[in-house]
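Schema walkthrough. Field components (list of strings):
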Amino acid sequence: MTATADQAADAGADKGAATDTGADAGADTGAQEAARFHALLRTFEGRAAATAGQGKDPVNQPMIRHWCEAMGDANPAYTGPDAIAPPTMLQAWTMGGLSGHGDRSSAYDELLALLDGAGCTSVVATDCEQEYLRPLRPGDTVTYDAVIESVSPRKTTKLGTGHFVTTRMDVRADGELAGTHRFRILKYAPAAAREKKPAARRPRPVVNRDNQGFWDGVAEHKLLIQRCTGCGTLRFPWLPGCNACASLDWDTVEASGAGTVFSYVVMHHPPFPAFDPPYAVALVELAEGVRMVSNITGVPYDKVRIGMPVRLEFLRADEDLELPVFRGSEG
Ligand code: ZN
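Field assembly_structure (string):
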């Protein structure tokens, strides 16, 4: 309790200092604000997270058996007349189940509410550590207390920016300390919500020496199909060699632009940036016989049908990207 009082006093002092300097210098305002908020959060260190908690059931053989079956743990120490509970079950004996315990302290609720108020509305459990002091045996009654052990300074993670909150639960068996369970969460403001992303653009094609000719054709509004000069087989997409005769020699023919929908899917999920579901993705069979994957334009996604005649056109997706797509016609 002394520690808590000291920390509260420190927090008050920091707050005063931050206010004084904040009046004349604006450069470090963000850092000062963060330090002041952290000092406030630290006043919760040492306060109860849960008090006088009681396990819903005494340590018992059926729960031990279920646990061992679920874990695939056949250790003989967990069965028979002298059975002990697997040490890693420590927290299981304290869990409230569906109906809960209602033993969470008001201090812990206040701490979480403060973090919510600062925009740290998301939570993720990051890790837990346990320490075992004596075995739990069937018949032991379980009680526990939990304390808010520490609140970290502001940290930025891949998920977002927030604070790690560590609680430590002391678990007792028949009144005797049996183990500790230290549990850490990150309360954070999600990164996606903080950063306004620029409007997404469609993915760029990977252009290399094997398909450069195709994209050169697109730039001239030509859909070029590779043709093996060894055996005359047409191929699409572009490849270095012929699947039919293995020849590496080729030229191109320009597609007429006529085709039919050979097959298609309608994309609903998952959403990809720059795409607005639902939309149809079709496997188009060109009049020349090769097939290519593309979008169908000009008809609603739910009117696309196998066999539907389509016609090549070029879609300008953005200033750097033009794509061959196929316009369908209903009826
Ligand atoms: Zn060939």
